[in-house]
Amino acid sequence: ALIRKSECVRMSSITMTNLGFFLNEVEFYEHIRMKKGSRRALPIERILETARNIPKPKVLYRVSEAKIIDATHFTLDGVEFISEVGVEKISQASYVFPNIVTAGPEIENYCLSRENVLDQYIIMELCNFACEFAREALIRDIKNRYGVEIKDCIYPGEDGFRLESGKKIFDLFENVEAEIGVTVTEVGLTTPSRT
Questions:
Q1: How many CA atoms does the CB half-sphere of 69 hold within 13 Å?
Q2: Is this model's pTM higher than 0.85 or not?
C-alpha cells in the first residue's frame, strides 16, 4: 500500500492478530446472490452458523524506505523488486507500507477438511470476507497511527508486479509464520491462499 505523507517514521513491524472478525451478513448474502431466510439459503445459514467464528484474520505491516533504481527496479529497505507499475506508484508516493494480510490458517484448514462442494464454496467466500476485514483493519490502523490514508496499492501477480515479489515482501519481515501463521513458496504462493 502506498501513501503520501511527509512525517511518517520508519519503524519495526506492526502485528495485528486480535481483530475481532465479524461477518457482515447483508453484504455476504448480496455477494453470493442469495436471500437470507429463503428456503434456498437454509443450507448456507447452517454452514455459516458452524463456521462464522472460525476466521482469525491477521495483519503484519511496516513502514519501508523505498528507492527507485530505474524505470523497472526499486528497493524496499534494500530488497530489490522488479515492476514498472511499482516504480510508477512509488514515484508518486512518499512512504510505502508493505503488508501481509490473511484470513488466517484456521478458516482455510477448516475449509480443506470439508468434502461437500457447497460447504467449500461458502467457507472460501467466508475466507475472502475475513481477508477483506483484515485489509480494512490495516487501512484504519494506518490512518489512526499515522494520520494518513492509503492512496494506492499494488499486489504481487497483478499489474506487472511479478508473483515472485510476494516472497520478497516476506523477506521484509521476520518470523511471518510465527507472527501470523502464513508461509510462502519461492514463486510467491501463500498458505493460506487467502493472503
A1: 13
A2: yes
